[in-house]
C-alpha cells in the first residue's frame, strides 16, 4: 500500500478510511477495539467519525463513537500513529445542526474530551449551514488551528455551488480552506458527485473521502433479495438498491471479482480507488474477516477492461 496526500495538507493517509459510525451502534466497545486493532495492524492509519455518531441508536445521544475511539487510543497509546477525522454540526436539535462560532467552539472541546486527545487532524463541517456566514465559520476554524486544537479542515455534504463559494471565500480572505470533501459516492450513487462536485474538488485540489463507499453494504453482495435485509441492523437501508440497476451492478461486480479471486466489496472499493479524484473511500466492517476485503481493495489494480465493465453497469447518463 502507498500513502496518498489528502488535498494540499500534510496528511499522508493509506487508501481506505475506516468509518466510525458503526462504533456504539452495530458493534460494542470490545468489538470496536478488535476491529481497530486489526485495521491498524493491516497497515491503515485513517479513521473518520463525527460528534453525532451514533445518536440514532435508542439510548444514545451522540458522541459514542468518539468515546470508543478515544478509549482505544488511550489504551493503545497510539495517538501519533493515527490520523483522526471527526465532524461537527449534525446532531439533531434546533441549536445543534450549526456551524456558528460559539457552537463550534463548544463542540470541538467536547470532541477533544471524548477522543482523549488535544488535537484533531481533520475537523469537518458535517453539513452546510446557510444561516451562518461562511467567513464566520472559517474564522473560528482559523482560531482553532492557531490554538493547535485542529490541524486541517474539511467539508461534507455541501452542494457544488456552496463548496466552491467556501473555497473562494477562504482564498479571498486569507482564511483556512477546506482540504477535503466527503460526499456520498459509490458504484450505485454516481450522478450527484460526478455531475458537478467532482469538477470542484479537481479544480481546487481537494482530497476526497467518500462515504457509503459500499452503499451501506449492498455492494458487498450480501443483500440480493428482500429476504436478506434482516442480515444486519443496516439492512433496512438496503431496500432502495434492490432494483434492475442494483442487480446489474452486482452482476458486473461478480464477473470482475471472479477475475481477481476477490469479493465484490474489494472490487467496488478498487473501482473507487481507480478514480483519480478519490483519495481514500470510507468503509466499515463489523468483523475481522471482513477486514480482508479492505486490505485486498487497497492493493488491487483493476485493468482498463474491468473498469469499463463496472462503468457500463453503473452508468447514470
Automatic annotation (TrEMBL):
<protein>
    <submittedName>
        <fullName>Aldo/keto reductase</fullName>
    </submittedName>
</protein>
<feature type="domain" description="NADP-dependent oxidoreductase">
    <location>
        <begin position="15"/>
        <end position="314"/>
    </location>
</feature>
<dbReference type="GO" id="GO:0005829">
    <property type="term" value="C:cytosol"/>
</dbReference>
<dbReference type="Pfam" id="PF00248">
    <property type="entry name" value="Aldo_ket_red"/>
</dbReference>
<dbReference type="InterPro" id="IPR050523">
    <property type="entry name" value="AKR_Detox_Biosynth"/>
</dbReference>
<keyword id="KW-0560">Oxidoreductase</keyword>
<dbReference type="GO" id="GO:0016491">
    <property type="term" value="F:oxidoreductase activity"/>
</dbReference>
<dbReference type="InterPro" id="IPR020471">
    <property type="entry name" value="AKR"/>
</dbReference>
<dbReference type="InterPro" id="IPR036812">
    <property type="entry name" value="NAD(P)_OxRdtase_dom_sf"/>
</dbReference>
<dbReference type="InterPro" id="IPR023210">
    <property type="entry name" value="NADP_OxRdtase_dom"/>
</dbReference>
Amino acid at each position: 500500500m502507498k500513502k496518498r496526500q489528502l488535498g494540499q495538507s500534510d496528511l499522508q493517509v493509506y487508501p481506505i478510511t475506516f468509518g466510525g459510525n458503526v462504533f456504539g451502534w452495530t458493534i460494542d466497545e470490545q468489538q470496536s477495539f478488535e476491529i481497530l486493532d486489526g485495521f491498524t495492524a493491516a497497515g491503515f492509519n485513517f479513521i473518520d467519525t463525527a460528534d453525532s455518531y451514533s445518536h440514532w441508536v435508542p439510548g444514545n445521544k451522540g458522541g459514542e463513537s468518539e468515546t470508543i475511539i478515544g478509549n482505544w487510543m488511550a489504551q493503545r497509546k497510539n495517538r501519533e500513529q493515527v490520523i483522526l477525522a471527526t465532524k461537527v454540526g449534525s446532531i439533531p436539535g434546533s441549536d445543534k445542526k450549526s456551524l456558528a462560532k460559539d457552537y463550534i467552539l463548544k463542540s470541538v472541546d467536547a470532541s477533544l474530551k471524548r477522543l482523549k486527545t488535544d488535537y484533531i487532524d481533520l475537523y469537518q463541517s458535517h453539513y452546510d449551514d446557510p444561516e451562518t456566514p461562511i467567513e464566520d465559520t472559517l474564522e473560528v476554524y482559523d482560531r482553532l488551528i492557531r490554538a493547535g486544537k485542529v490541524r486541517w479542515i474539511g467539508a461534507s455534504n455541501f452542494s457544488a455551488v456552496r463548496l466552491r463559494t467556501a473555497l473562494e471565500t477562504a482564498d479571498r480572505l486569507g482564511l483556512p480552506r477546506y482540504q477535503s470533501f466527503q460526499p456520498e459516492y459509490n458504484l450505485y450513487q454516481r450522478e450527484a458527485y460526478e455531475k458537478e462536485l467532482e469538477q470542484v474538488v479537481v479544480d481546487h485540489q481537494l482530497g476526497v473521502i467518500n462515504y457509503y463507499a459500499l452503499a451501506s453494504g449492498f455492494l458487498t453482495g450480501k443483500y440480493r433479495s428482500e429476504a436478506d435485509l434482516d442480515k444486519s441492523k443496516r439492512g433496512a437501508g438496503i431496500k432502495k438498491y434492490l432494483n434492475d440497476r442494483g442487480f446489474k451492478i452486482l452482476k458486473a461486480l461478480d464477473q470482475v471479482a471472479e477475475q481477481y479471486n476477490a469479493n465484490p466489496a474489494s472490487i467496488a472499493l478498487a473501482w473507487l480507488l481507480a478514480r483519480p479524484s478519490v483519495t481514500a473511500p470510507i468503509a466499515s466492517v463489523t468483523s475481522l474477516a471482513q477486514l480482508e476485503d479492505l486490505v485486498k481493495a487497497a492493493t488491487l489494480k483493476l485493468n482498463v477492461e474491468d473498469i469499463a465493465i463496472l462503468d457500463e453497469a453503473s452508468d447514470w447518463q
